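This entry is retained here.
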Amino acid sequence: MKKIWYSFRFLIIAITAFAVAHCNGKSQTKPVTAVEENAIAVRLQPVSDTAYTPVLRYSGTMASTTEAALSFKVGGIISRIYVKEGDAVVKGQLLATLNLTEINAQVQQATQNAEKAQRDVTRARNLYNDTVATLEQLQNATTQQQVAEEGLRIARFNQQYAQIRATENGIILKKIMNEGEMASSGAPVFRLSGTAGNDWVIRFGVSDKDWAVLRKGNKGIVSLDAYPQKTFNGLVTEIAEGADMANGTYEVEVKVVPEGVRFATGLFATVQLQPSALQRVTLVPIEALAEADGKKGFVYTVNSDQKTVQRHAVTIAFLEKDKAAIVSGLDGVREVITDGVGYLTEKAIVKVVK
């Protein structure tokens, strides 16, 4: 009986030990199973390196290269204005004149001074020949004559430019002053846009980064709101070498050929430019961008253990269709995470799905 009891007791101890060991085994493997079950399923996509020329888009207004601000050479009261805004004019046409009372008087005064100087020279020469006047007196009189003649020439020149004439065929865009107003020397009275040729341009300001890649001769496509169904060929003809003090941009001038249509100053235009400078970028699927703010964003990659991830801060050059062009931040990266990227953090555990 006692032997049976010891055998039974031994059996109970063995069963208990087995149960404890079994429970301990489960508790040790459970965390690993939990980690695997909580891993985020992700999918990888390859990236590619390429060279591209960025397409720059800007807007501006149409202008004529022969546009001019017309003014009087001298100041005075405006006597007559012969044209109004919108009038077509031809080269040499009289547009406005000043009251010539004061200017004619200056010419008359200069004429009298020149005549007196001529008489003084004649008298001094005769006296010098008679040895009454000295050579110095004759030379002084001659100098005074030359000064008087130059003063007369200046007065006549000012008299000639006391009127405004059209510098070429064109349209009066703006009449700034009216009859009876006091016009100071060089103050614009008219703004004229020439129409003799096809010298139409679009002017706009660009950023310093775009200025660095643009070159004279770069081609572009111009769209005008006035002709929505048509595009025009453009060519960069001028690039400013200094920034505008007001807004910090660099002015660019793009020449446009009318191609049989009518242009006018002030037409709103959109310009797409294709610089010749190449830039190396890394193309990634657009789904790989976990975050993006302007030109900055973040991309995730899987580490070599195939379980942890790394977060990369990247600089975005542009977005095109289903691709994002990255200019920095992905050096040496061959694959990026696309599917599941929205659930990732820097401490996330992942499971790569083929």
